[in-house]
User: Fold this.
Amino acid sequence: MKVIAVGNAFCGDDGVGAAVLAQLGAIWPADAADRPELIDLGTDALALVDHLEPGGRCVVVDAAQMGLPPGEVAMFRPEEARLRIRGDGLSLHGLGLAEAFGLAAHLGRMPKDLLVIGVEPARVAMGSGLSDVVAAAVPRVVGLIQAEVLRHE
Amino acid sequence: MSRDLDITVKHLTRVEGHGNIVVDMKNGVLHKAQLDIVEAPRYFEALLKGRSFHEAAIITSRICGICSLGHQLTSLKATEQALGLAVTEQTVLLRKLLVHGATLQSNILHAYFLAAPDFLKVKSVIPLVGTHPEVVLRALRMKKLANDIGDAVGGRAVHPITCVPGGFTHVPTAATLKDLRRKLVEQMVPDFLATVETVASLAAAIPQFERPTEYISLRSDGDYALYDGDICSTDTGRVPDSEYRRMTNEFVVPHSTSKHCRANRTSYMVGALARWNNNHDRLCPESLQAAAALGLKPGCTNPYMNTIAQVVEAGHCALDAVAIIDKLLDMGPKLETPNQEPTRFGTGIGSTEVPRGILYHEYTYDRQARIVKANCIIPTGQNLANIDDDMKKLVPEVVAVKSKEEITSWLEMLVRAYDPCISCSVHMLDVEFLE
Assistant:
């Protein structure tokens, strides 16, 4: 199983994915058979397309604006939500996960078993460090991913 | 003939910032034609204060996801100059290889993801998967291989981890380099040639618009300047990068939270077209053939041709990457201890050509090797005044002969040709749950 994080660790709560990966990395020994593959895409969301394969299992972790209170965690399948294309169309800098999912779907690369875990951010301004509410959400996200790994053993 | 024109293209979809195109023309008199930038300024210059020289490049590489490698290398160069840290020939070669990978990736994405949808009159690259699947797959294949260069040399493609002040903490093995070389020759070069063919078939859609301006890029004696060089202006020639403040003259304008720049005119252009105009004589023959096939000539003054200049340059990056790998293989890649013993504590300037143009970092260090002052000028900031000047010439030229929709589309294409780094530091999902 792959756990893929997207986001900028120097942009407040946008770095929640990287924080989750760091905790996951400490749970399983590096050579453990059931250790999920941990992939930090940083800000290159489009690279997600390279990591998706129809037969694979995948969890994608990202800060997400979901209209929930800050720090809330939601786990969903892409088809259960509308992912808005937020790119302004004027520059490559706007390419994000929604576009990556769109491309992967059109290319027939979307895994059947793909979950998105979104964490509602409190603060996304430039500067390192998660807000308290989002930092408190990290163990909950880690728990969800551990349960996903166990579910398939 | 219409004498009134009122265009506002708002891009409010992004959280942190956006660029609005605003045109206001009354009775044939142009009152306004500009790109408004409204985004929270990024306080990374303040963020750098007090940080040790080990941290500067890590922090600045996070300023921007697309330009992370450029920020990192420019930052390292500034630090190394400030602290008097010499680097080896192998380090320079590996860095040049990284620059080629990053430039290749950005240029290719620009051509396929931003420009091609314009040329084919669709809203984004996604519909092209249905109509031109082989083209989209080629784009993704090229992007992936460009990423692989970053992975092999930098440890990972975005926010590389092996580049540190004074050198590398890890170097690729000969086997890894040979594998990269094979893929570049067997896959990237044919894909580049196919790209030139594809772009040539679409080039008729490039707007015909000329506005001579000042073109500024790096230039070096040896190679096509990307990693290093003097500042070179088509108006006034070469000066060392220590004179970068005189060549940028940052100033504040009311309609943009990003500063504007000027040198010898009201504006100047940086990026692939500026590099082409200054350095076409340093390109490899394959790139010059591509330029001929795509109608790109020296002294080009059509800003829309920036996209074409990027494609031409991509070929050079691929082929020069092969040449650099050959040199590294000849030398035999070996792990060297990074030189991190400062010989001085002062001010250093780093200037590098990143895909969108010259990037400058300047740091001053105290005797504990901590930053006391930092300055950073990004290419987009340098291009903003030039974009406005382009719009002010373009709108009156086309207002009588084109519809408002066509003009709007041309203005959007113009901004896309520069691919401004408007808002890039946050990559959140925007989710609406379905009932």
Notes: Residues 44-398 of chain B form a domain with the Cytochrome-c3 Hydrogenase; chain B fold (CATH 1.10.645.10).
